[in-house]
């Protein structure tokens, strides 16, 4: 899908059919009529913002953010849904929609934006941004002793989390296995984790890598942004430069930064697995 000239604008009831189509990609199939009824209710409320990325008569994505209030978190914006068309991913559509959500939150003087679990499907750099939000939510919850609503009152920041003591292999294993469909395939020779039948991360055993490093699978775009965000923790030896990967020093990471990097890697590998599955099915039918 050519997304040149895509406009991010407020959703309309007339967008119901296209938004319903995209909702199916998010895992919530519904009819255009049902989507239209929901849009009528939500668009009438000033506490909801629904925006779409529009190109000609088609939509390449939509987002829904809500102004919420709770005893635990007070006022905050919550990203209730965000989806980018499978044919338009990795072209900046998700980033533009996240930017729109942040602008709306700021316009209402809300200092925090949280992410509703399992309510996003997007691409590239946007995956990383959402992963950071979720990592910040988890860090805030842990800091509060694990009580209250996940993500309540978490301020959206992009601070570079660093730790001089680093994280242990046990912590790496715990955080990796918290992600959906991840399995531990560690051997006596190296640490390794897979998801959806594909490698997620493993020990960096090549001689060009520093001791205590791991290799995580990420896209080239994610790698550039991650290395800019965590320059002390991430690096790229020549041996790995041609791969969809980045190398991390466990000694320079803390739980929050490791969780964000793992989430970005998991999103990349999961998307790669999903993209290849239809091809295999077509091959079998032949």
Task: Give the SSE layout.
Blueprint: E1 7-10, H1 16-26, H2 32-43, E2 48-55, E3 58-70, E4 74-84, H3 93-107, E5 113-115, E6 120-121, H4 124-143, H5 169-177, E7 182-184, E8 192-195, E9 198-203, E10 213-217, H6 220-229, E11 234-235, E12 245-249, H7 255-285
Parallel strand pairs: 4-5, 4-6
Antiparallel strand pairs: 1-2, 2-3, 3-4, 7-8, 8-9, 9-10, 10-12, 11-12
Highlighted features:
about 290 residues, alpha+beta, six-stranded mixed beta sheet, six-stranded antiparallel beta sheet, 7 helices, about 25% strand
The gist of it:
This protein is α+β, with helices and mostly antiparallel strands.
The strand count comes to: 12
Rounded mean pLDDT is 80
**SSE run:** EHHEEEHEEHHEEEEHEEH
Percent range for β-strand residues: 15-25%
* N-to-C span: 26 Å
Shape: elongated
What summary fits the major beta sheet?
6 strands, mixed
Structural class: alpha+beta
Rg from Cα: 20 Å
**Percentage of helical residues?**
25-40%
* Number of helical elements: 7
Low-confidence stretches: 120-127, 140-164
């Amino acid at each position: 899908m050519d997304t040149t000239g895509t406009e991010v604008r407020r959703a309309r009831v007339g967008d119901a059919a296209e938004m319903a189509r995209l909702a199916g990609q998010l895992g919530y199939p519904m009819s255009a009529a049902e989507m239209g009824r929901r849009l009528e209710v939500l668009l009438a409320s000033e506490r909801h913002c629904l925006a779409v990325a529009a190109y000609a008569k088609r939509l390449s994505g939509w987002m829904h953010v809500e102004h919420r209030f709770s005893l635990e978190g007070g006022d905050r914006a919550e990203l209730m849904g965000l989806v980018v068309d499978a044919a338009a991913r990795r072209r900046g559509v998700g980033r533009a929609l996240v930017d729109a959500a942040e602008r709306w939150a700021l316009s209402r003087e809300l200092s925090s934006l949280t992410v509703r679990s399992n309510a996003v499907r997007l691409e590239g750099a946007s995956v990383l941004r959402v992963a950071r939000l979720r990592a910040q939510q988890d860090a805030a919850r842990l800091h509060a002793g694990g009580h209250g609503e996940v993500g309540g009152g978490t301020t959206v920041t992009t601070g570079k989390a660093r730790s001089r003591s680093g994280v242990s292999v046990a912590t790496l294993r715990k955080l990796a296995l918290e992600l959906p469909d991840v399995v531990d395939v560690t051997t006596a020779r190296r640490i390794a984790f897979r998801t959806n039948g594909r490698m997620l991360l493993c020990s960096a055993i090549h001689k060009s890598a520093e001791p205590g490093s791991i290799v995580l699978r990420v896209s080239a775009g994610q790698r550039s942004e991650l290395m800019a965000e965590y320059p002390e923790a991430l690096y790229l030896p020549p041996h790995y430069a041609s791969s969809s990967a980045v190398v991390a020093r466990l000694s320079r990471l803390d739980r929050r930064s490791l969780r964000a990097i793992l989430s970005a890697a998991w999103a990349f590998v999961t998307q790669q697995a999903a993209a290849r599955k239809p091809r295999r099915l077509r091959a079998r039918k032949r």
